[in-house]
Amino acid sequence: MHLILFLIFAGFCLGGAINLLIQSHPINSALSLIVVMVSLAVLYLLLGAEFPAAAQVIVYAGAIMVLFTFVVMLLNAGREARTLGSRAALRLGFPAVVAILAVIATVILYAQGLGVARLSDGITSTEELSTVLFTKLLLPFEVTSVLILIAILGAVALARHDDTDQRANAERTGK
Amino acid sequence: MSSLLSQEVPLSWYLLLSAALFSLGVVGFLIKRNLITVFMSIELMLNGVNLSFVTFAHQWHAVKGQIFVFFVMMVAAAEAAVGLAIIIAVFRARATLAVDRIDLMKL
Q1: Check: CATH 1.20.120.1200 for A2-80+92-120?
Q2: What is the CATH number of the domain that holds B89?
Q3: Contacts of B105 (CB under 8 A, 6+ apart)
Q4: Which terminus of chain B is more exposed, N or C, with fewer CB under 10 A?
Q5: Tens-place pLDDT, residues B11-66
Q6: Residue B102: is it exposed, middle or buried by C-beta count within 10 angstroms (0-12/13-18/19+)?
Q7: Tens of pLDDT, residues A1-41
Q8: Within an 8 Å CB–CB cutoff, is residue A66 touching chain B?
Q9: What residue ranges do the domains of chain A occupy?
Q10: For B18-35, b where at least 16 C-beta lie within 10 A, e where not — what string?
Q11: Inter-chain residue contact B15 with A118, CB threshold 8 Å
């Protein structure tokens, strides 16, 4: 059962990621990224990580991807032009990526003592997780909330129509 | 039924999947020519790393790995909000999303 579920959702993951690369329209890429994220949530559940799975669906597939699709629609982003980028990306980038993947895969395959995952392994309960989060890691958690607040303010400040700039531009062009 | 429940998957497969997702994200970062899709590739890389965090949390029976995933998600959310705001500002100034034409820091 575990093997079947793993194969199905790992397939969805890789398929979605590859589809993200080959689609030329940003909205299609966004939808295939949602597929990747939801199937990753299932994989988290298979590994017994209940809270990350729920947060993955709510935060990533819900909030972040809605933000992405909103921006794609707001900016009316069309089909991307197929230029092949710089030559450096083709000649150095791809061999570098393949080399990195090969090195990581070799390290993983030769690693000693990596365990196995079963369905009967049990689930890390949210209670257990929150006990550690709110006792030992309380300060990082509070710092995160400050980070989110700063991000909200930054996003509002950056995305706002700046009236003073527009007025200055209008005056400049008027003269 | 018991044979179905005792079926096992080596954790190295999960780690290989996470490495593959990360590499696909890097490839997307290199070949995509749309600013928003480049940004999505970064999210894909973050997701790949998250999967390896969860896998190692399972391996060591450690809760802190899963908490780190939570922190990565929060940072990703903050990054997405600010990054998309920057993309909107850039689009307003340049009226394009092609990364080839957005090569100056100045708006």
Answers
A1: yes
A2: 1.10.287.3510
A3: none
A4: N
A5: 889 999 999 999 999 999 888 888 899 999 999 999 999 999 999 999 888 888 99
A6: middle
A7: 888 899 999 999 999 999 998 888 899 999 999 999 999 99
A8: no
A9: 2-80+92-120, 137-175
A10: bbbbbbbbbbbbbbbbbb
A11: no
Q: Does B107 touch chain A (CB under 8 A)?
A: no
Does some domain include residue B3? no
Distance (Å, whole) CA B40 – CA A99 = 23
The residue behind tokens 């998250």 is B50
Nearest CA in chain B to A112: B12
Residue of chain B whose Cα is closest to the Cα of A55: B70
ipTM over cut 0.85: yes
Is-contact A126 A51, C-beta < 8 A? yes
Q: Which residue's structure tokens are 């083709």?
A: A90
Range of the domain at B41: 9-101
Number of domains in chain B: 1
